[in-house]
Specification:
Belongs to the RNase T2 family. The chain has seven helices and 20 strands. By secondary structure, the protein is of the alpha+beta class. The chain has two domains: about 250 residues, Ribonuclease Rh, Chain A (Alpha-Beta Complex), CATH 3.90.730; about 120 residues, Trefoil (Acidic Fibroblast Growth Factor, subunit A).
């Protein structure tokens, strides 16, 4: 079977085609007056929903089962010149619903395409918009056009985002859900940190093999990852594959092997170039020969590593991630979990001994109490020691935190370090 060529977006009016040109449907503008909150009221799905691409019979509730686009790809860019995003992070390309055989649909609902995604998010999810301004960037500087392209091409082909899946649907709800889910999945895939821990860092002089890169990413993702390069052998894109159990909005994303297009990078001589920004600090180039990386790669694949864990310092925000929660929110200044939108609290991480650090907020020091609950308050005399594993906040060596329930509306949930009903993790974003 011939798989349709994949068009990669590289600007508002320019595409790099992997195989040959394919026609693009004309985009019809969809207007939306943004006025008032869009209620998060997608349908609740039963617990026995089959995993996408794994059902043996037709599943009646199409709002709770992704089909035909059940092979979900979270795609990431490494834009080195011109550079986008932080020097030490990959950036978001999109979230794509491929068919289970590796083919795909595109621009599935012209009547639901949007031309004002920035306005929608500014009104309904300003935290998402702020994050996108750093981590979801267009290489040609037209972020709005890029976001429109990604939703209009891919988001309209996600059947669980169709208006009929929202009781009391208000135009724009599906855009907010698409963006939030894309960000949530992206945050669980810290490509730069994974590669860095294995000694694979941007360099003007050192090259890497496909096997070296693939070994590291597979060790973390649990399945092979598509590794793409441009014609100059420069690493520039990754595709992480998932199935989903439930809806795109609230379902559980399950890592799976790739289907469809293979990696486009050569077997060797891959360039992972530093991002070229005026005044930016380029990561130090490693002089380690490719053959000597095997020890580090073995560590990434599962052996015990003697490297000290990463640490953080300065001011930042703690964003939550929890399986099945489409809008996972953040940690508020008192130490509770909140999902109701708004501005996240600012925490200050102060380095301590052994790579650990303490946290303070506007409320005071943050510490784990005798009942294992987290509290930030002026009454806390001494803050607890926290850690950072390169991806998530940790306490006593574990990145898992817990609550009794997922907070809704304006409610907050107390966070615990001992097992409870809901498991969550926190990522750090510098303020």
């Amino acid at each position: 079977q011939i798989v349709s060529p994949r068009a990669q977006y590289i600007g508002p009016h320019r595409f790099l085609l992997l195989l040959d040109m394919r026609s693009r449907k004309s985009i019809f503008s969809a207007s939306l007056a943004v006025s008032g909150a869009l209620a998060a009221n997608s349908l609740l799905c039963p617990s026995d929903v089959p995993q996408s691409c794994h059902n043996t019979t037709a599943f009646a509730n199409t709002c709770c089962f992704s089909a035909p686009g059940g092979q979900i790809l979270q795609t990431q860019f490494w834009d080195s010149n011109p550079a986008t995003g932080p020097d030490d992070s990959w950036t978001i390309h999109g979230l794509w619903p491929d068919n289970c055989d590796g083919t795909y649909e595109q621009f599935c609902a012209p009547e639901r395409e949007y031309t004002n995604i920035t306005a929608i998010l500014a009104a309904e999810s300003p935290c998402s918009l702020k994050y996108m301004d750093t981590f979801w960037k267009d290489q040609n500087g037209n972020d709005e056009s890029f976001w429109e392209h990604e939703f209009n091409k891919h988001g309209t082909c996600m059947n669980t985002l169709e208006p009929s899946c929202y009781p009391g649907y208000t135009p724009g709800q599906e855009v907010v859900d698409y963006v939030k889910k894309t960000i949530q999945v992206f945050k669980t895939l810290p490509t730069y940190e994974w590669l860095k821990k294995a000694g694979i860092v941007p360099s003007e002089t050192v090259t890497y093999t496909l096997d070296q890169i693939q070994t590291v990413l597979t060790a973390h993702h649990g399945h092979n990852v598509i590794v793409n390069c441009n014609k100059n052998k420069e690493l520039n894109e990754l595709w992480y594959h998932f199935n989903v159990k439930g809806s795109i909005q609230t379902g559980v994303f399950v890592p799976v092997d790739s289907v469809g297009s293979p990696s486009s990078c050569p077997k060797e001589g891959i360039k992972y170039l530093p991002k070229k920004k005026a005044g930016a600090t380029t990561p130090a180039a490693t002089t380690t020969a490719a053959s000597t990386l095997s020890t580090v790669l073995t560590s990434a694949a599962g052996s015990t590593s003697t490297a000290n864990p990463s640490s953080i310092s300065g001011k930042g925000h703690l964003f939550a991630t929890s399986s099945g929660v489409s809008s996972p929110g953040f940690l508020v200044s008192g130490g509770n979990w909140y999902c109701g939108g708004g501005t996240p609290a600012t925490f200050t991480a102060t380095p301590a001994a052994g790579g650990s650090f303490t946290l303070t907020s506007s409320k005071g020091n943050c510490a784990v109490q005798e009942n294992a609950s987290l509290l930030c308050a002026s009454s806390v005399a001494t803050g607890s020691s926290f850690g950072y594993d390169g991806t998530f906040l940790t306490y006593a060596g574990s990145s898992a935190f817990y609550t009794a329930e997922v907070p809704t509306g304006n409610t907050q949930s107390t966070v615990f370090t001992k097992a409870n009903t809901v498991t969550l993790q926190f990522t750090w974003t510098a303020a």
